[in-house]
Amino acid sequence: MFRKSGVKDGTATGQGPDDENYPVGIKKKSRVPGVMITQFIESLPEGKSHPDFTRKPIALTIQEGKFAFFKAIVTGDPQPTVTWSRNNGDVSDTSRYQTKYDPNSNEHTFEMPNVQPDQADTYKCFAVNEFGQAVVTVVLNVIEVGYKKNKAKQPAAEAIDGNFKTVLKRKSKIRPKAEQERKEGEIDPKFWELLISADKKDYESICAEFGVTDFRWMLKKLNEMKKEREEEQAQFVKSLSNLKPIQVNADGTASFEIDMDLLDPSSSIFLYKDGVMVPYTKELGDKMKHGLKQVGRKYIFSMRDLMPDDAGLYQLDVEDVNMFSTEFKIPMVDFLVKLQEVKATEREDAVFECVLSNPFSKILWFGKNLPLEQGDKYDIEVSEDKLIHRLVVKDCMIVDKGIYSACAGIKSCNAWLVVEADKDAQKGKKTARKTTRAGGSGVDLQKIAEEQQVKLVKDREERKEQIKAVKEAAAAAPPPETPPAPAPTEAPAPKAPESKPASAPAPPVVEVPRIEPVITGGLSDIYALRGNPAELSVTMNIDSDGGWFKDGEQLNSGAGVAIKKDGTSHKLNIRSCRDDDSGVYRFVSGDLSTQGKVTVGDVPEFDPDDLHKFSKPVIIRVGQNAAFKMPFPPQESLVVSWFKDGTELKDGGGIKIVREPNHSRLLLKDCLRTDAGEIKIQLKNPFGAVEATSRLIVLDRPGPPEGPVETVETTSSIIEIKWSPPKDDGGSAVTNYIIERQQAGQSLWTKLGDVSADKTSFRDRNVTHGKKYNYRIYAENPEGLSDSLETADSIMAGIMILSGPPGAPTVVSASKTCIKLTWTPPEDDRGVPVIGYQLEKRKKDTNQWIALNAVNEPIEDVSYAVKDVTEGAEYEFRVSAINESGAGDPSPPSAMVCAKNPNMRPCFKDPEDFIVVRAGNSARIKICYEAEPPPQITWLKDDEPISPWTHVINTEGMSQLVIPSSKRSDSAIYTIIAKNSVGEASFDIEVRVTDEPKTPGPVELEQTVQGKVVVSWAPSPDQELDDRLYYVVSQHDSNIRMWKTVADRLFTNTYTAININPGTEYHFRIYAKNDVGLSDPSQSPTWGVNSNRVQITSNGVNSTELSFERPPSILVPLKVHTPPKGYQLYMTCAVRGCPTPTVSWYLNDICINSDSNYYMTNSFGVCSMYILRVRSKDSGDYKVVAVNPLGKAECSTKLTVRD
């Protein structure tokens, strides 16, 4: 039987401080929950302290006959005296209770060797010194083992005593084997328990184990049982998941896991093995065989020191409902050859081997206490006879060293893997993986396995012979004699009635039935207030005697108790209930009895000071937290509830309710105005309830004034309005109202002033006749301004005066997207200036006029472009003049006009006239145009029709010519021709299909003048095919040894290098370049050899002086450029003149020589300008001007930047 103690308050006789020695103390709070501290004096001397627990005893559930103990550590100065007691008994018997103290660890131990069921109780530990005492309670539960004859009648006796909890005996649905009685053909209940908790993939193996073959019947019944079980589980748990069956771990323990969300965290959890309750511990660690560890919602049940007897069905119950069942199977197997230590070098495989005594399909392998599985790192091998098992650790590294173990059932063995560094490996380089294997058992495993296999076969044959011999002996033995069946007793035959002479009939005999006494009205549990009378009443069906008992002792009328009998009614009256009147009362009449429990107590009450403090209102601002706290004396069975405006508050969301033994707190987070109201706390126990009331005031700015805004008076100089106070003043009174005004059609609001809170009207005297105004009113209190109350419609000062009609609109132009109109102002504005116009349109065949602009968004001009039109639709328009009073009379309608484009000759929009495409890429020529009606598009190539494989894509306003894969032969002048009924237009686009140029020919060097070398080269083969090809010259000498560009954009095949110094070697490279890119260079011979120089001799003859002076001239002019936006650009021209002319660059006749956006060079007459990224504003006419004393020369070009 499982005996569970009941927890009671109170101090056992002879324990704790004596009321005569110590005054009523001051309650203190311990840092350890569950410890009650009483301080005997108001202030402690310096350096002294009252007792307290740093470690309190832990509740224990233990099996009968085991060693039970409690441990506690106490502090205090002076050193407290520690004593132990129990609620229902004495602890003075030293053979059953022993108290010990360890000065080294400061632990106080209370020991119970060979604990018995009658020791199950609530125990108390007291720590007392001269300044106070500390008390803590702890519960001991004892599980009874077996059945005892001398306790067979105990349940009945306990029932008489009224302790029904100890009568109940917890039982699992799976009975112990000794109690199992199943009929032939009946399925073991263990089968259904395993199926309910198993995965579907395990159904087949479980059915095979129990011999169940009708799967359809099994699944149907299983679904019914699962549904019933889930309904039972829902009474105690919210969710149940992650059921992991029991398995052996690497450390030699076995465990199973379950994720469980309990509805009540205090619910009792029980563990059964084969139907017998198993004791376990939560906090004693290795002191008990079974343990429970809880991590959040996960419960892990573990079992240590595994033995073969540990096999069986384990079940987990919450209260009396099963949650999970799992079977622990322990096969009879042992290791014939165990794992041996393996030493391996890096990048080598390591092998662990073992041989089992019985075939085993799969054993568990662990590495450094982690389970190992087949994969890239590990190979797990099993022989055909399932006796040899092998683990291969592939490609060993230093991090793989450690202990590896094999586990078969509850048997295990382990060995070290030692990984040594590869001494032959090169430092800093990773070596290749080795093909060798290290390790192994060092014995012939196959031979050992074969010998074991022969032994197993022999054992099986011997067992078969023994079974056969037993069966033959049983068949040869004579059947036991059965005792003869008793002869059936024959019933006497009924006698025939004798015929008698007729005589006078005898008087009838009336038999009165006997009435058995029955209790018609029994006793029930009652709660009585201390000091008040209480009555127990029993009603019988007949008048009979009876007696009254309290806690097993008979009661008689006397002091405080009166027993009355009135016919069939028996009453027991308690005149004034006291604490010792609590107990179990029983009425007995013959063999009949009824009983009920009387509990004496008081209604909860508050301290008057705490009640006065709580009644004060809590005042906060919006968004702040409101906190309420109410202390009360600790009591059992006390229910604390919080209410707001009569509605009970629940913990959650923005409400936090904290319940402590001696107080309760309510926290309302981020309060709003709607949270204001009456706050009430209620304490309730079986004897009654008490309430305390407070109020929450949440301050906020007021709500907006109540509308609508009414117009009291409006004249040409005054507008008076009024409103109503706000419904919500924000918790504090409104101090004043603020009024703002806005003139209709404007966006500016101006403050007019404020009025006091007792006045809800305002008179605006600063108004203009005919104008409209909007007003808004704010309410103000100490917390701020409210939202505004605004007038629904504008209020006009005085009478409305509208303008006369303007002239009828006239159509200026019309297209499919826009119709431009104009009109004349009204002839009569009626004395009020016109501030704008409102335009309306009406579609043909409709009667609805649609305004194109609002009255507060007037058209200020007498013309307007209407863009909200549908192509092809016909419209007429009218216009109204707007003044301060609003829109006046509309004008006569305009003539009907159709929204379509006027006929126009085709014209092209910003076309490109030059396109470069790399050979092999697709070429796209995109031309946008405008024309009405839509034109017919024709494309030509060099004035000839385009080829069939050239695609033309025409859409509205655009035409594209696409060459999918261009070739050099596709270079040409392409012409687009657009033609409609009005006319036609054409445009030429030059398409240049080219590729990176080929390398120029051989380079020759020649010196004609001292210090100058003429560099000449054969042209690139692409020069004739590409008129935009030019050359780039790079030079490097033996002094610098760095290549630098000395000439760029040369359209000739010669270049004169200057500053050629004797004794220095020079090299030149010639590149061909076009719009696509740069060619490979052509290398010159080395310059600096004496044979390459021109000998200059002087024969002493005076030479004739020649003049080389000449005016500037342009050798190579500028070319037209159309680069895309963001691209780089080079402009180059060649200039000649002597003396050397000064060169200036101009953009749109403005000199740009000093502009940092342009980089300009002049290298011996080759003038270049470079733009890193062209912009739209770089488009224009560029001009180069060369000037010297003899004259002037210039050339110009045009630059167009494409988007």
Automatic annotation (TrEMBL):
Residues 1-26, 457-508 are annotated as: Disordered. Residues 477-495 have a biased composition (Pro residues). Residues 51-137, 902-994, 1111-1200 form the Ig-like domain. Residues 457-471 have a biased composition (Basic and acidic residues). One of its GO terms (biological process) is heart morphogenesis. Residues 704-800, 805-902, 999-1092 form the Fibronectin type-III domain. Keywords: Immunoglobulin domain, Repeat. SMART domains: FN3 (SM00060), IG (SM00409), IGc2 (SM00408). The keyword Transcription does not apply. It comes from the Eukaryota. One of its GO terms (cellular component) is M band. CDD domains: FN3 (cd00063). This is Immunoglobulin-like and fibronectin type III domain-containing protein 1. It comes from Sparus aurata.
